[in-house]
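Example 5.3 — Bile acid:sodium symporter family protein
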Amino acid sequence: MVFLTKISQQLTRFTALIIILAAVVAFIEPTTFSWVKGDTQVLVLGIIMLAMGMTLGKEDYKVLAKRPLVICVGTLAQFTIMPLVAIAVAKALSLSAGLTIGLVLVGSCPGGVSSNIMSYIAKGDVAFSVGMTTLSTIVAPVVTPLWLIYLVGQTVQMDGWGMFKFMLLVTLMPVAIGSSCNIFFQNKKWFETLRAVMPSVAVLAFACIVGGVAAVFGQQLFESALIAIIAIAIHNFAGYILGYFSGALVGVDKAKKRTLAIEVGVQNAGLATGLSTKFFPNSAESAVVAAVATIWHSVSGSVLANLFSWWDRRRLVANPNLDEGVKPALSAKKS
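Solution (predicted C-alpha coordinates):
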Protein backbone atom coordinates (compact mmCIF):
# COMPACT_ATOMS: atom_id res chain seq x y z
CA MET A 1 0.00 0.00 0.00
CA VAL A 2 2.73 2.47 1.00
CA PHE A 3 4.81 1.43 -2.01
CA LEU A 4 1.90 1.98 -4.41
CA THR A 5 1.15 5.36 -2.83
CA LYS A 6 4.76 6.49 -3.27
CA ILE A 7 4.81 5.41 -6.92
CA SER A 8 1.55 7.26 -7.51
CA GLN A 9 2.93 10.39 -5.84
CA GLN A 10 6.05 10.33 -7.99
CA LEU A 11 4.08 9.88 -11.21
CA THR A 12 1.81 12.75 -10.18
CA ARG A 13 4.81 14.89 -9.31
CA PHE A 14 6.31 14.42 -12.76
CA THR A 15 3.05 14.71 -14.69
CA ALA A 16 4.40 17.28 -17.16
CA LEU A 17 7.52 15.23 -17.89
CA ILE A 18 5.50 12.07 -18.53
CA ILE A 19 3.13 13.92 -20.87
CA ILE A 20 6.04 15.47 -22.79
CA LEU A 21 7.68 12.04 -23.06
CA ALA A 22 4.47 10.56 -24.47
CA ALA A 23 4.30 13.33 -27.09
CA VAL A 24 7.94 12.75 -28.10
CA VAL A 25 7.40 8.99 -28.39
CA ALA A 26 4.29 9.61 -30.52
CA PHE A 27 6.32 11.86 -32.83
CA ILE A 28 9.02 9.24 -33.27
CA GLU A 29 6.73 6.22 -33.49
CA PRO A 30 3.08 7.25 -34.05
CA THR A 31 1.78 3.69 -33.86
CA THR A 32 2.61 3.67 -30.14
CA PHE A 33 -0.38 5.91 -29.40
CA SER A 34 -2.41 5.82 -32.62
CA TRP A 35 -4.90 3.51 -30.88
CA VAL A 36 -6.04 6.39 -28.61
CA LYS A 37 -8.92 7.62 -30.75
CA GLY A 38 -12.67 7.26 -31.08
CA ASP A 39 -14.36 5.16 -28.40
CA THR A 40 -10.99 4.27 -26.87
CA GLN A 41 -10.28 7.93 -26.24
CA VAL A 42 -13.70 8.32 -24.63
CA LEU A 43 -12.89 5.41 -22.33
CA VAL A 44 -9.53 6.95 -21.39
CA LEU A 45 -11.22 10.27 -20.58
CA GLY A 46 -13.73 8.40 -18.45
CA ILE A 47 -10.90 6.78 -16.49
CA ILE A 48 -9.41 10.22 -15.76
CA MET A 49 -12.73 11.52 -14.43
CA LEU A 50 -13.31 8.29 -12.48
CA ALA A 51 -9.97 8.87 -10.75
CA MET A 52 -11.10 12.35 -9.82
CA GLY A 53 -14.41 11.06 -8.51
CA MET A 54 -12.68 8.55 -6.28
CA THR A 55 -11.08 11.43 -4.37
CA LEU A 56 -14.47 12.91 -3.47
CA GLY A 57 -16.20 11.80 -0.28
CA LYS A 58 -18.81 13.00 2.17
CA GLU A 59 -16.55 15.70 3.60
CA ASP A 60 -16.08 17.29 0.18
CA TYR A 61 -19.82 17.64 -0.32
CA LYS A 62 -20.13 19.05 3.19
CA VAL A 63 -17.65 21.72 2.11
CA LEU A 64 -19.96 22.60 -0.78
CA ALA A 65 -22.88 22.82 1.64
CA LYS A 66 -21.03 24.90 4.23
CA ARG A 67 -19.35 27.33 1.84
CA PRO A 68 -21.69 27.59 -1.16
CA LEU A 69 -21.32 31.34 -1.73
CA VAL A 70 -17.53 31.56 -1.94
CA ILE A 71 -17.31 28.38 -4.04
CA CYS A 72 -19.99 29.67 -6.41
CA VAL A 73 -18.14 32.98 -6.70
CA GLY A 74 -14.93 31.13 -7.51
CA THR A 75 -16.62 28.92 -10.11
CA LEU A 76 -18.29 31.98 -11.65
CA ALA A 77 -14.89 33.68 -11.89
CA GLN A 78 -13.45 30.61 -13.61
CA PHE A 79 -16.24 30.28 -16.15
CA THR A 80 -16.23 33.97 -17.05
CA ILE A 81 -12.56 34.92 -16.96
CA MET A 82 -11.12 32.02 -18.94
CA PRO A 83 -13.59 31.87 -21.88
CA LEU A 84 -13.61 35.67 -22.33
CA VAL A 85 -9.83 35.97 -22.06
CA ALA A 86 -9.51 33.11 -24.56
CA ILE A 87 -11.55 34.88 -27.24
CA ALA A 88 -9.75 38.17 -26.49
CA VAL A 89 -6.32 36.53 -26.91
CA ALA A 90 -7.47 34.81 -30.11
CA LYS A 91 -8.57 38.13 -31.61
CA ALA A 92 -5.47 39.99 -30.40
CA LEU A 93 -3.16 37.42 -32.01
CA SER A 94 -5.38 36.97 -35.08
CA LEU A 95 -5.47 33.22 -34.53
CA SER A 96 -6.91 30.93 -37.17
CA ALA A 97 -10.39 29.48 -36.67
CA GLY A 98 -8.93 26.14 -35.52
CA LEU A 99 -6.59 27.66 -32.96
CA THR A 100 -9.40 29.91 -31.72
CA ILE A 101 -11.70 26.93 -31.21
CA GLY A 102 -9.01 25.11 -29.26
CA LEU A 103 -8.20 28.05 -27.00
CA VAL A 104 -11.86 28.85 -26.28
CA LEU A 105 -12.52 25.16 -25.63
CA VAL A 106 -9.68 25.02 -23.10
CA GLY A 107 -10.97 28.19 -21.44
CA SER A 108 -14.53 26.86 -21.26
CA CYS A 109 -13.64 23.54 -19.59
CA PRO A 110 -13.80 22.95 -15.82
CA GLY A 111 -10.83 23.11 -13.47
CA GLY A 112 -7.91 20.77 -13.90
CA VAL A 113 -7.84 17.53 -11.92
CA SER A 114 -4.31 18.34 -10.68
CA SER A 115 -5.27 21.77 -9.30
CA ASN A 116 -6.03 20.34 -5.86
CA ILE A 117 -2.46 19.08 -5.49
CA MET A 118 -1.11 22.41 -6.74
CA SER A 119 -3.26 24.27 -4.18
CA TYR A 120 -1.83 22.09 -1.43
CA ILE A 121 1.75 22.83 -2.50
CA ALA A 122 0.94 26.55 -2.74
CA LYS A 123 -0.45 26.50 0.82
CA GLY A 124 -3.83 27.45 -0.52
CA ASP A 125 -7.24 26.35 0.75
CA VAL A 126 -7.43 22.73 -0.39
CA ALA A 127 -11.05 22.24 0.67
CA PHE A 128 -11.98 25.34 -1.34
CA SER A 129 -10.02 23.96 -4.30
CA VAL A 130 -11.82 20.61 -4.16
CA GLY A 131 -15.15 22.42 -3.86
CA MET A 132 -14.44 24.55 -6.94
CA THR A 133 -13.23 21.59 -8.99
CA THR A 134 -16.30 19.59 -8.01
CA LEU A 135 -18.79 22.35 -8.78
CA SER A 136 -17.12 23.35 -12.05
CA THR A 137 -17.18 19.71 -13.19
CA ILE A 138 -20.88 19.39 -12.29
CA VAL A 139 -21.95 22.49 -14.23
CA ALA A 140 -19.51 22.02 -17.15
CA PRO A 141 -21.85 19.87 -19.32
CA VAL A 142 -24.16 22.87 -19.52
CA VAL A 143 -21.73 25.81 -19.37
CA THR A 144 -19.03 24.53 -21.74
CA PRO A 145 -21.30 23.93 -24.77
CA LEU A 146 -23.08 27.26 -24.18
CA TRP A 147 -19.79 29.18 -24.20
CA LEU A 148 -18.65 27.38 -27.35
CA ILE A 149 -21.91 28.18 -29.12
CA TYR A 150 -21.80 31.81 -28.04
CA LEU A 151 -18.13 32.51 -28.74
CA VAL A 152 -17.37 30.40 -31.82
CA GLY A 153 -20.71 28.92 -32.88
CA GLN A 154 -21.19 31.57 -35.54
CA THR A 155 -17.94 30.72 -37.31
CA VAL A 156 -17.98 26.92 -37.11
CA GLN A 157 -20.72 24.31 -36.98
CA MET A 158 -20.97 22.46 -33.69
CA ASP A 159 -23.38 20.11 -31.97
CA GLY A 160 -24.09 21.76 -28.63
CA TRP A 161 -26.65 19.15 -27.58
CA GLY A 162 -24.27 16.36 -28.55
CA MET A 163 -21.47 17.95 -26.53
CA PHE A 164 -23.78 18.23 -23.53
CA LYS A 165 -24.66 14.53 -23.68
CA PHE A 166 -21.05 13.57 -24.29
CA MET A 167 -19.85 15.56 -21.27
CA LEU A 168 -22.48 13.94 -19.09
CA LEU A 169 -21.10 10.59 -20.19
CA VAL A 170 -17.39 11.34 -19.72
CA THR A 171 -17.52 13.75 -16.75
CA LEU A 172 -20.51 13.50 -14.45
CA MET A 173 -21.14 9.76 -14.77
CA PRO A 174 -17.56 8.62 -13.98
CA VAL A 175 -17.24 11.24 -11.22
CA ALA A 176 -20.54 10.10 -9.69
CA ILE A 177 -19.50 6.44 -9.85
CA GLY A 178 -16.07 7.14 -8.35
CA SER A 179 -17.46 9.34 -5.62
CA SER A 180 -20.18 6.82 -4.72
CA CYS A 181 -17.57 4.08 -4.45
CA ASN A 182 -15.47 6.32 -2.22
CA ILE A 183 -18.42 6.98 0.08
CA PHE A 184 -19.53 3.35 0.35
CA PHE A 185 -16.16 1.57 0.31
CA GLN A 186 -13.76 4.11 1.83
CA ASN A 187 -13.00 1.86 4.80
CA LYS A 188 -12.33 -1.23 2.70
CA LYS A 189 -8.69 -2.23 2.34
CA TRP A 190 -9.01 -3.12 -1.36
CA PHE A 191 -10.57 0.24 -2.14
CA GLU A 192 -7.85 2.13 -0.28
CA THR A 193 -5.27 0.35 -2.45
CA LEU A 194 -7.23 1.10 -5.61
CA ARG A 195 -7.70 4.76 -4.66
CA ALA A 196 -3.99 5.10 -3.92
CA VAL A 197 -2.99 4.14 -7.47
CA MET A 198 -5.71 6.07 -9.32
CA PRO A 199 -3.77 9.38 -9.46
CA SER A 200 -0.96 7.62 -11.33
CA VAL A 201 -3.51 5.94 -13.60
CA ALA A 202 -4.95 9.40 -14.37
CA VAL A 203 -1.48 10.74 -15.21
CA LEU A 204 -0.81 7.84 -17.59
CA ALA A 205 -4.27 8.34 -19.11
CA PHE A 206 -3.49 12.03 -19.70
CA ALA A 207 -0.25 11.00 -21.37
CA CYS A 208 -2.18 8.61 -23.65
CA ILE A 209 -4.58 11.40 -24.65
CA VAL A 210 -1.73 13.74 -25.59
CA GLY A 211 0.19 10.92 -27.25
CA GLY A 212 -2.88 10.07 -29.33
CA VAL A 213 -3.21 13.66 -30.54
CA ALA A 214 0.52 13.82 -31.34
CA ALA A 215 0.30 10.54 -33.25
CA VAL A 216 -2.63 11.68 -35.39
CA PHE A 217 -1.73 15.35 -35.80
CA GLY A 218 2.05 15.18 -35.46
CA GLN A 219 2.93 17.44 -38.38
CA GLN A 220 0.28 20.04 -37.51
CA LEU A 221 1.39 19.97 -33.87
CA PHE A 222 4.92 20.78 -34.94
CA GLU A 223 3.83 23.53 -37.33
CA SER A 224 1.44 25.26 -34.92
CA ALA A 225 3.33 24.68 -31.67
CA LEU A 226 4.95 28.13 -31.37
CA ILE A 227 1.86 30.28 -31.85
CA ALA A 228 -0.16 27.80 -29.76
CA ILE A 229 2.32 28.07 -26.87
CA ILE A 230 2.28 31.89 -27.03
CA ALA A 231 -1.52 31.99 -26.97
CA ILE A 232 -1.78 29.40 -24.21
CA ALA A 233 0.86 31.14 -22.09
CA ILE A 234 -0.90 34.53 -22.29
CA HIS A 235 -4.26 32.90 -21.58
CA ASN A 236 -2.87 30.89 -18.68
CA PHE A 237 -0.97 33.76 -17.01
CA ALA A 238 -3.99 36.04 -17.35
CA GLY A 239 -6.02 33.36 -15.57
CA TYR A 240 -3.56 33.25 -12.68
CA ILE A 241 -3.46 37.03 -12.29
CA LEU A 242 -7.19 37.69 -12.73
CA GLY A 243 -8.07 34.70 -10.57
CA TYR A 244 -5.91 35.99 -7.72
CA PHE A 245 -7.32 39.51 -7.91
CA SER A 246 -10.89 38.28 -8.21
CA GLY A 247 -10.32 36.85 -4.73
CA ALA A 248 -9.09 40.25 -3.57
CA LEU A 249 -12.27 41.87 -4.93
CA VAL A 250 -14.53 39.64 -2.80
CA GLY A 251 -12.28 39.94 0.26
CA VAL A 252 -11.15 36.35 0.79
CA ASP A 253 -7.97 35.46 2.66
CA LYS A 254 -4.54 34.81 1.12
CA ALA A 255 -4.97 31.03 0.97
CA LYS A 256 -8.19 31.36 -1.02
CA LYS A 257 -6.62 33.96 -3.35
CA ARG A 258 -3.88 31.47 -4.18
CA THR A 259 -6.43 28.74 -4.71
CA LEU A 260 -8.47 30.98 -7.00
CA ALA A 261 -5.36 31.80 -9.03
CA ILE A 262 -4.66 28.11 -9.59
CA GLU A 263 -8.27 26.99 -10.06
CA VAL A 264 -8.98 29.74 -12.59
CA GLY A 265 -5.67 29.39 -14.44
CA VAL A 266 -5.41 25.58 -14.63
CA GLN A 267 -8.03 23.99 -16.87
CA ASN A 268 -8.92 20.39 -17.62
CA ALA A 269 -7.12 20.52 -20.96
CA GLY A 270 -7.22 16.73 -21.22
CA LEU A 271 -11.00 16.96 -21.42
CA ALA A 272 -10.66 19.80 -23.94
CA THR A 273 -8.45 17.55 -26.07
CA GLY A 274 -11.05 14.81 -26.08
CA LEU A 275 -13.87 17.24 -26.87
CA SER A 276 -11.82 18.74 -29.71
CA THR A 277 -11.15 15.45 -31.47
CA LYS A 278 -14.75 14.34 -30.93
CA PHE A 279 -16.63 17.46 -32.04
CA PHE A 280 -14.12 19.22 -34.29
CA PRO A 281 -12.49 16.27 -36.12
CA ASN A 282 -11.65 18.41 -39.15
CA SER A 283 -9.80 20.99 -37.08
CA ALA A 284 -6.39 19.58 -36.23
CA GLU A 285 -5.29 22.95 -34.82
CA SER A 286 -7.94 22.89 -32.09
CA ALA A 287 -6.65 19.53 -30.86
CA VAL A 288 -3.10 20.87 -31.04
CA VAL A 289 -3.95 23.79 -28.74
CA ALA A 290 -5.67 21.51 -26.22
CA ALA A 291 -2.81 19.01 -26.24
CA VAL A 292 -0.18 21.72 -25.77
CA ALA A 293 -2.30 23.26 -22.99
CA THR A 294 -2.32 19.92 -21.16
CA ILE A 295 1.46 20.08 -20.94
CA TRP A 296 1.71 23.82 -20.33
CA HIS A 297 -0.84 23.93 -17.51
CA SER A 298 0.83 21.02 -15.72
CA VAL A 299 4.22 22.76 -15.85
CA SER A 300 3.14 26.34 -15.13
CA GLY A 301 0.72 25.34 -12.36
CA SER A 302 3.41 23.34 -10.59
CA VAL A 303 5.89 26.23 -10.96
CA LEU A 304 3.38 28.75 -9.58
CA ALA A 305 2.51 26.52 -6.62
CA ASN A 306 6.17 26.10 -5.75
CA LEU A 307 6.78 29.85 -6.13
CA PHE A 308 4.03 30.54 -3.60
CA SER A 309 5.64 28.03 -1.23
CA TRP A 310 9.12 29.50 -1.81
CA TRP A 311 7.82 33.01 -1.12
CA ASP A 312 6.42 31.88 2.25
CA ARG A 313 9.73 30.27 3.23
CA ARG A 314 11.63 33.38 2.16
CA ARG A 315 9.39 35.66 4.25
CA LEU A 316 9.63 33.35 7.22
CA VAL A 317 13.44 33.41 7.07
CA ALA A 318 13.44 37.21 6.79
CA ASN A 319 10.96 37.58 9.64
CA PRO A 320 10.91 34.60 12.04
CA ASN A 321 8.16 36.23 14.10
CA LEU A 322 5.82 36.43 11.12
CA ASP A 323 2.45 35.02 12.06
CA GLU A 324 0.26 34.59 8.98
CA GLY A 325 -0.22 30.88 9.16
CA VAL A 326 3.03 30.35 7.28
CA LYS A 327 5.02 28.77 10.11
CA PRO A 328 2.33 26.23 11.06
CA ALA A 329 1.95 25.29 7.40
CA LEU A 330 5.67 24.75 7.03
CA SER A 331 5.84 22.74 10.24
CA ALA A 332 2.98 20.55 9.08
CA LYS A 333 4.70 19.93 5.77
CA LYS A 334 7.95 18.92 7.47
CA SER A 335 6.17 16.52 9.75
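Remark. The two ends are 20 Å apart (CA to CA).
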